[in-house]
Amino acid sequence: METKNLTCINCPMGCSITVKMDGGRIVSITGNTCKRGEDYAGKELTNPTRIVTTTVKVTGGQSNTVSVKTGKDIPKEKIFDCVRELKNVQVQAPVRIGDVVASDIAGTGVDVVATGNVERTGVDVAEAGNV
Amino acid sequence: MREKGNDLRGSSQSYDIVIIGGGPAGLAAAVSARESGIESILILERDKELGGILNQCIHNGFGLHTFQEELTGPEYADRFIQKVNDLKIEYRLNTMVMDISPDRRVTAMNRTDGMFVIRAGAVILAMGCRERARGALNIPGYRPAGIFSAGTAQRLVNREGYMPGREVVILGSGDIGLIMARRMTLEGAKVKAVAELMPYSGGLKRNIVQCLDDYGIPLKLSHTVVDIRGKERVEGVTLAQVDENGRPVPGTEEYYPCDTLLLSVGLIPENELSRGMGVGINPVTSGPVVNESLETNIPGVFACGNVLHVHDLVDYVSKEAAAAGRNAAAYVQSLSGESSFVRGTDSGITLEAESGVRYTVPSVIRPAYMEDSLTVRFRVGGVYRNCYVSVYFDGERVIHRMRPVMAPGEMEEIVLKKEQLLQYPSLKTVRFTVEEV
Ligand SMILES: Cc1cc2nc3c(=O)[nH]c(=O)nc-3n(C[C@H](O)[C@H](O)[C@H](O)COP(=O)(O)OP(=O)(O)OC[C@H]3O[C@@H](n4cnc5c(N)ncnc54)[C@H](O)[C@@H]3O)c2cc1C
Ligand code: SF4
Predict the structure, then answer these.
(1) Does the predicted TM-score (pTM) go above 0.95?
(2) Topology, domain B346-437
């Protein structure tokens, strides 16, 4: 029997999880404080996934870049493909949080969405609000 | 709404609550003060947008507690900015607060209004923190180009789309350093090592897994930079192991060619303004000494967020700031006779941090002014496994809580109940301590 030690990344508790495996089959999962830890451990040993965050280029905006994330976690081995594909993506301002900037990234079936707002150049951005 | 809100010139303007800083702390404080019934609120922010440091923290991991979803920094900030707009709370951007007087006159400056003074019924300090300067580094020799603080690198990469270097060594394993190790790797750089002076990391465990382990970046605990090579630009750094006293161990030196050294050697609360007005500072946190209401030694002046003590989780910042907003509202309402919030001259119960607990926030409790429960936040000074956090009311142990793991990088909290404190009318001190099994 094989023993794997993991740290759950689902919340800041960072529980140390011990997984006992027998020929690729999970026999027991211990050390997690909640159910999410169990799910994480199972997935981490069979199909590890991560949410990817980066930036893409913006044209005609008050900022040259906007921050983005994958709408869902994608397989870990696709992270670099995802970031590489996004290097070639350019979006036109204005950009709003939640706008899809690329779909089916790196063949994962997952969309990439903006996590920031960028106004068009020339639009006056208020120096004061709600006055 | 204020008719002449736009014109801050002249010293006649006054607001019930003025909030210094429009990061997550300032925003949450403003929202809760408004929800507690205060109409006249002004947020002053020196940056060109609200949201504070979150705007450059594009990674996910914010808001797990507050929104039960995993947001990125800008998304988390946006939730609060929307609330501020929905509630029509006034704010000024590109506005630098220069001085606050003990009688709560706030001097600030921007391009539109020039220099102006605002009288504040209450002030909430929410200026956040800044990174320790590289002067904190004890390395002799040249200071070539290519040495950046991790936060500066984060701003360059995430906000300006500029990569500071290709081959990187990071000194310090605080969260910003860990996050930047991953970020620069994704952007095509080779991060060769993260060196940490202490025998444990200062960052969250989840960041060590997701940012270093995922990419095979070595974390060298009990290591430091002993030499930087390069005159114009960094050409390489030498790392060495350190002994228990933090002194390099001869013979352990290892040379790493690189063009960039990132420093993630800690954050310090930004308290120049607070000091200037005479706010008492706790030497351990470098933040104001506060009571249960998060009020400083100056009546009507409150503090929350990273200016009070460095937080690793923004959720806790938002909660703490909401309490400061409610308390500031109660203070203002007491001045107008609307509430019974009176700052007692009674000194209250002292909170003491002992054996393993480095500090507590707050450090004084006056049960009479306390809400039904009070979250006391603290950090421990080392890594503890299967230990208890114990709380003593004078000689009596009243709380004894098992913690599987505690580390300096992760803030702890214990909730005290007002009911419980009121049962001890002559209580002088509440002691927080770590106890082994
Ligand atoms: C790199 C990094 C990574 C992080 N990662 C995470 C994470 O994954 N998950 C998580 O939950 N938390 C994370 N945090 C923590 C969280 O972001 C902070 O705790 C939080 O932003 C602190 O909020 P604040 O409002 O106190 O300070 P800040 O966000 O720093 O805001 C302070 C504001 O005050 C303004 N200000 C300062 N002085 C003046 C002045 N004189 N006049 C006018 N304005 C002024 C500043 O411009 C700034 O906008 C991270 C923090 C950092 C730095
Ligand atoms: S097991 Fe649950 S409590 Fe522990 S780190 Fe994972 S999500 Fe958090």
Answers:
(1) no
(2) Immunoglobulin-like (2.60.40)
